[in-house]
Amino acid sequence: MLALTRKKGEALVLNNNIEVTVLEVKGDQVKIGIQAPKDVSIYRKEIYLQIQKENEEAMNNAGIEELKNLF
Amino acid sequence: MLVESKVFGEIEVDDAKIVTFEDGIIGFPDLKNFAIIYDEDKKDSKISWLQSMDEGDFALPVMNPTVIEANYDPYVEDELLKPLGELNAGNLCVLVVVKVPSDIKKMSINLKAPIVINVDNRKGIQVIVEDDYPVRKEIYGMLKEAKEKAQEGK
């Protein structure tokens, strides 16, 4: 992983078309601004992981046989 | 395309019916080709399957969210759906993933991450919506009620 130190108001440019700016630093919280083309999907990682886990669990279909008999 | 499905055994799907997810499904970026399978024996079933043609073990139960949430209308940035081509009321298909745990009473749908498909060009994408929809909405009670109602009507 590339680690860079930035101060409030400073930014990074990724791939010519994405800009990540440190907007605010308050204690252990950092507010980040991202300017990117709209077709770039940006997700909070914990939500992304939660969806990934849901997909995985849905694939297991533990109760599917029972379900077939019901609905 | 031929696949050995965990749920259906060996199945062959006409290439012209395969739905392509260019970015895969969330968490499974390599799974790009899917077939939507309806269980012939269960014509009344609300549940169909998104069967991966790349990986037979991967089959996701899916359903039309409006069965449960009539007014389901999440906001998705147009640009995110651009890869699907032009969408209209006629070619837009929205599905949500159904989770069926061993305690079937806890079965749920994921309204936070719908699957959007353009049925004309058969391109699909799974997106995470910003709206405050739940990742797990339990549906057992509602399905049961709907079934009982349907039976009364018969």
Query: How much of the residues of chain A is beta strand, in percent?
Result: 25-35%
SSE order of chain B in H/E notation?
A: EEEEEEEEEEEH
Strand content of chain B: 25-35%
**How many β-strand stretches of chain A?**
3
Strand order of the largest sheet of chain B: 3-4-5-6-7-9-10
From the alpha carbons, calculate the radius of gyration of chain A and give it in angstroms: 20 Å
Structural class estimated from helices and strands of chain B: mainly beta
The low-confidence runs of chain B, each spanning 5 or more residues with pLDDT under 50, are: none
Q: N-to-C terminal Cα separation of chain A, in Å?
A: 48 Å
Summarize the structure in words.
The complex is a heterodimer of chains A (71) and B (154). Chain A is of the alpha+beta class. Chain A contains two helices and three strands. Chain A has a three-stranded antiparallel sheet, with no helix packed on it. The radius of gyration of chain A is 20 Å and the shape is elongated. The N and C termini of chain A lie far apart (48 Å). The model of chain A has no long low-confidence stretch (mean pLDDT 90). Chain B is mainly beta and 154 residues long. Chain B has one domain: BH3618-like (Roll). Chain B has one helix and eleven strands; from the N terminus they run βββββββββββα. In chain B, the strands form two sheets. A seven-stranded mixed beta barrel of chain B has the order 3-4-5-6-7-9-10. In chain B, strand 1 (2-5) and strand 2 (9-12) form a beta hairpin. The mean pLDDT of chain B is 90. Chains A and B meet through helix 1 and helix 2 of A and strand 6, strand 7 and helix 1 of B.
